[in-house]
Every structure is written in structure tokens, then in C-alpha cells.
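hiii, so i know i said id send this last week but things got crazy w the move. better late than never?? heres the sequnce for the chain we talked about at the cafe, plus the structure i predicted for it. fair warning i was half asleep when i ran it
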Amino acid sequence: MQRTSGVDAAFLYGETPNWHMHVSAVLIADPSTSPEPWTTERFIERTASRIHLAPQFRWRLVEVPFGLDRPYFVEDPDFDIHSHIRRIGLPAPGGPEQLGNLIGDLVSLKLDRRKPLWEFWIIDGLADGHVAILAKIHHAIIDGISGSELATVLMDLEADPPPTPPEADRVVDAMPNQFELFARGALEAFGTPYRAMRFGRGAIRQGLKFVGFQRRAAPPVAPFQAPRTSFNTELSKHRRFAYASVPLADVRAVKDAFDVKVNDVVLAICSGALRNYLDANGELPEAPLVAQVPVSLRAEEDKADVGTKVGAMFASLATHLHDPVERLHAIHASTRDAKEMQQALAAEKIMGITEAAPPALISLAARMYTAAGLDSRTPP
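okay and structure toks below
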């Protein structure tokens, strides 16, 4: 049995019928390159043989009575991989539009909390004979870095991979009863005032550092400074999906040519698309849009750890600049300053509020925020 971290629990508390907290990824595979015939059953068998290398895929969520403590993950005694990997056919003609529409429908559905919080969809019927694999995994058990590590565990890049390490002997904990969970929660609740006081002292120091950055002649981008656009509206439960492909070699060529980072080039691509869309619809704001960019808080030695260790920084997308080269350089300067501020403020300490605040209070605040429609009223 494993207690969720404050950040993991925040992703659970923040979930509503319209605001989902799972992350999704789509892989398009070419079955013709497989040394053995491709079948859904073979994919399930291969995944099942490696599931012990991804222990969070067996964990089920257990809530603590009255919200006294953060939820726990326990190994699901009824785990059945067939209820997590499903096959679905793509409507004809099986092109990008049909694939995008189907994926949009699938990611619009919340994960079932009565089971481990993940599912794979095998999508066949693509026009070129390829197969798409949609992964939906709750953010409470994965982030970008751990997700990349997980992909290398569950999938192979070569036709003749090394043998999978065998599963070690393991002891499955019994499912905790409500009294046990209540007792654990009551004990943890006693420490809440101390944790809140400790976080408060740190928050004051962080706030003073933030003020120092904002007093600069050209301060880094801060939250709630972006202009409002048609994107800033209340979410529905429906999602739309479309995709395009850009060779990584081209991205790196641009990076080297202009002495910037790969992430700067990716942000510039997004910025150009957003600028063109808003301009075509007559709503391009004079002030630049701002991107909230996830930042890993993982040390090198804990890349494979389960859970979420992520913070965020805010960077200008420079959508007010017409010239794409000027825009790229402006984005690079903004991300450089944002990284400096993020490191100075110690993002992991800022995220400490999720460890200090009472779980029931965080849950209530998240529900009130979405119920009041504040996501469409507060500054972006």
C-alpha cells in the first residue's frame, strides 16, 4: 500500500466530469516490420509479461474516509489486463481525420477509478495498414519523464529484444478496511498544522524572491499576465484531436542554426500556429500569449520512480511578433529567464502546498473552482 504524494493527490482532487486529469499519447506502428504476425492478443500477452516492471499499472485507488488524508494506492486483487487493453476498428476510409475523431471521442472519457488508472486502445483499420495505439494514463501515476522510461520498458525498438527480467517474489497487501484508513488519516491529520506552518515560512521567502525578479527592467513572465482569447473558456467533456509530423532532424537543424534549444523550436512552432489561427479569425491580441511549460523536478537517479514530480514555468510565445526568427529569439530569451526564476524559487518547494494543505480543503477548492466556472473568468 502506497500513500499518494501531495502532487499526485492534487491531480486526483482536481478532476471533474469536464476536467480530466489523464494524459494521452498516440503511437502509430507498422505491423509489416514485425518479425511475427501482429495481433491484438500478442500485444496483450507481451504487455502482460512486462507488467511487473510497471507496478503502478496494478494499483487501484482507495479513498480515506471524510478526506482526512490523501488517497492510497493498493494492488488490485482483481486485476485483469483484458479490461485495460481494448481493440477498436477505425471507420473508412481510415485517414487522419477519422483517426483524430475517434481518438477525440476516446480521450473524452474519464478513467474508471474502480480499476487501475490506465488503458490502451488498439486502433486498426488505418488506410496504410498501420496500427495506432492510444495510451491513457492518469497523471497521478505518471509524468513526462517517468512516461518515457515506462515506454522503454513496455515496448521494443528492435526486432530481437533482450529477454524480459523475471518477476521477483512479491507480497500483495490485503485491501485496507475503512477503519484502518480512518485511523491512518486521523494520525496524519495531527501533523497538518506543523506542515502548514513550515510551508508558510518557505512561501514568504519564495514570495520575496519572486518580487525581486519582477522588479527587473525586463522581468520574467508571471502567471495571470496573458491576454484573454477564445481559447480561455469553460471546458466541456468533449475533446478534439488532430496531429502533424515534423522530423526531429529538422527541429535540431533550426536549433543549431539559431543557437537555441529544441524546446524553444517546439514552442515557436506552436506559437506560429496559434498566431496564424487567431489572426485568420480576427482576434490576434496585441500582447503575446503565454505558455505554461511543464518542468521535471526529477533527479537523474529517480527517473523511473512512480508518481508525478513536475512543476511549471511561464514563457512568452511572442505571438505579437510577425517575423518568425524574431519570435524564436524572443521565446528563447523568455524560457531562459523563466528557467532562472524557476530554479531560484525552487519549484518543488512551491508545490509543497499540496503536502501542507488538508486534503479535504484541496478537494473542496478544486470542486468550487470548476463549479463556479472560474476557469473562464480568471485571467489566463
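btw The radius of gyration is 23 Å. thought thatd interest u
miss u guys!!
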